[in-house]
Structures are given as C-alpha cells and as structure tokens.
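Exercise: predict the structure of this protein bound to aspartic acid.
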Amino acid sequence: MLKITVGFLLGIIIGLIFGPAAGVLSPLGDLFLRLLKMIVVPLILFTLIVSVNNSNPKELGRIGGKIFPYYLLSTAVAVFLGIAIAKLINPGKGLKMPENATLDVPEAPSMIDVLLQIVPSNIFESMANGDILSIVFVALITGFAISFMRNSAEAQMKDWGNMLLKFTEAGSEVTFRILNGILQYAPIGVLGITANSIGNQGMETLSSLAKYVGASYLGVAIQMFIIFPIILMLFRVSVVKFFTKTREAIMTAFVTCSSLGTLPVTIKSALNAGISHRVANFTLPIGATVNMNGSAIHFGVGVVLAAEIVGYDLTIGAIVAIILTGTLASVGTAGVPGAGLIGMSIVFTQAGLPIEIVGLTAGVNVITDMVFTMCNVTGDLVGAAIVDKTEKDVEEEDLPLQNAQESNLQYDSKSI
Ligand code: ASP
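Solution:
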C-alpha cells in the first residue's frame, strides 16, 4: 500500500514536471490495466462457483434481497446529493454553450432488454466481451448444477460433482496467486497512469470548469466521508477498520478510473476487511457493474450545470424525474473509464437538456472520473460490508460458537 502511494505521488510529480511528455510512461499504466482485466473473468467464474457451493440457495436469495435495495437507494441519494451540492455552488453560472462539442447519444436500452441481455446467447462471446452480468449468471447456474450433483443420490454424480468443485477451488487459488503477483507490479502501473493523466490534463480547461470539478469533488467527499460512514455505523461496522482495510481498492479505483478493472483488488480488500467469501464474491462483481454512487453524483452535478448554462428552471417534478433516470442510467453505466459521459448524455436527453454540454465536461473527465470511480467502488464495498454484518448476525443467532471461529479464520488467512 505504501509503495502504491509512493508510485502515485511520483506520478504526479513527473506529470507536473514533464507535462504531456510524461505520456511516454503510459504503457506502464496500460500494462497494469491489462493485467487486472485479464484476471477478472476467471476470478468471477471460479470464486462464484465455489461460493455457490459453500452456501445454500436460500442464503444467496437473502443476500440478493438485501443488496439490491441498498444499491438503488444509495444511488438515488447520490443523484440527489449531486443536484443539491451543485445548486449551492452554481457551476454553470457564467459559462456559455459550447459551439462545436458534439457527442453521439446511444439509445437508452429498455429495462426488458437490459434484463434479457443478462442471459447470454453465447457463453464464450459473453466471456470474450467481458459482459460481467452474463458471466455472473453463467457462474451461478454452473455452481448450482455442481451443487445438485454433489448432493445427488447417485455415487457417480456425487463423484463428478466433488471432482468439479475441487477443480474450481484449485482454479480459484490459482487466480488469487496470479492476482498477488499483479499487485506487486501495482506501484509502477499506478505511476504510469498518474504521470500520463496529470501530464496531459490542460490547466486551462480545468480553471474554466473549476466550479464543476469542485462541486463533483465536494459531492464525492460528502458521500464518502459522511453518508457511507453513517450507513456503516447504522449497521455497527467499524468505520476506521473499513477504510483502513479497503484503502488498496479505493486507491486503485482512483487511479484506474475503472470499477471493473479494480474488481480483483476490490474482492481482495473485502476479504482483507473480514467480509466473508460468500458475500464478497457474490455482491462485488454485480456491484462493479450496476452500483455506481459516484457516477450518480456525476449525473446530478452535470444536470444542474447544463440547466444553469441554458437557463432552465429545475422544478421539483423535474428533479424527481432526474433522480429516477439518473439511478437507472447509473445501473446501465459500465465500470470502465469515461463511461459516465454516455450515462450523462442519456440523462440529459431524457431531461431535455442539450448534450453538447456533456462534451464541454469531457475535457476534465479524467480528473472527475477518478473520484467518481473511487466512490463507485467504495459504495460496492460498503454494501458488501453491511450485508456481511447482517448475515453474521443471523448466523450468530443460530451458531454462536462455530461462526466466531470461522470468521476469525477467514480474517487471518486472507490478510493482504
Ligand atoms: N469510470 C467509472 C467506473 O468505472 C464509470 C463512470 O465513468 O462513471 O466506475
């Protein structure tokens, strides 16, 4: 962790001194991102199949029933927070409509399409494309199939089921070992990414949109350091321990600007924080794809910016509609760098605001994307932490002694 921070600080210094020339270091960062992405698909597949076999369908249903309301509620709050902060700071006052900044707005897919696409028409294609929700789906049904085989009355089936589970457990161990290796390289990767983005960020664009950037940072700070701690405290999770144990993931999200790229580190940090494998492996891949608290703040701040530039009065009705579309758009936002710009253009189109303004903010997106992604990943971890806590409370009522021993073990064996 200390090494990553040193890499980050060195990256800033190199970026500031050499400016755009620091771009020569960007392959170092690209290599880090590629390594992380390389491990995402096998990691999700192996760990989820093992998780399903270590828990029963009832438990998984219970976890899902807790995590989804949390995702939707915390995202809606984040859109509102973005709007409220921006209303105080007025980022659009004094700015003009950009003349030639254009952007293609993709059609917003319908809810039915989004749900249908979770079921892949070709398993291998979904893995090749990194469609995380489809991969989660395939991993879950494979996990259940193996679990049924293991519990079958037929000796042959039982044998195969146990063999497949053993194979998957070994595969999961392999991916974690590779991940540990990748993390050794993290400080250099982080240096490359930071030097490149700091070196290439024009200072002029930054000063003209300083209020917009300021509102975004303030919104994220409130979500991270007030709202998330309150949620954690409500569920009696130690805030200090949470942030110390998960800071590696938070920092990686900040520099990579990608929730998906950060996912392997997020899972590792969650285990490090004592969150059970079952909850971490099941909720975090889904969270990295659908839960975007930071992106939601992005949409809230962006809408106020655009409304102020064009002189559009945001009524209560309009704000409620924006919270709804903002929440849905953030579910649809991919966990990759810059994806929020597409989500924002969907929100703008539905609110009747000119999407050229999205282009205006694109110039500072590298700087804002960092904190939005950091907030996205922290939100996923907060969700996992509180669900884990409620799960442990349930278990404690049932099996006080066994559970205490188990959670201690997990905590020790998975420390980074
Ligand atoms: N970069 C963000 C993420 O990966 C998504 C966004 O652009 O809002 O979490």
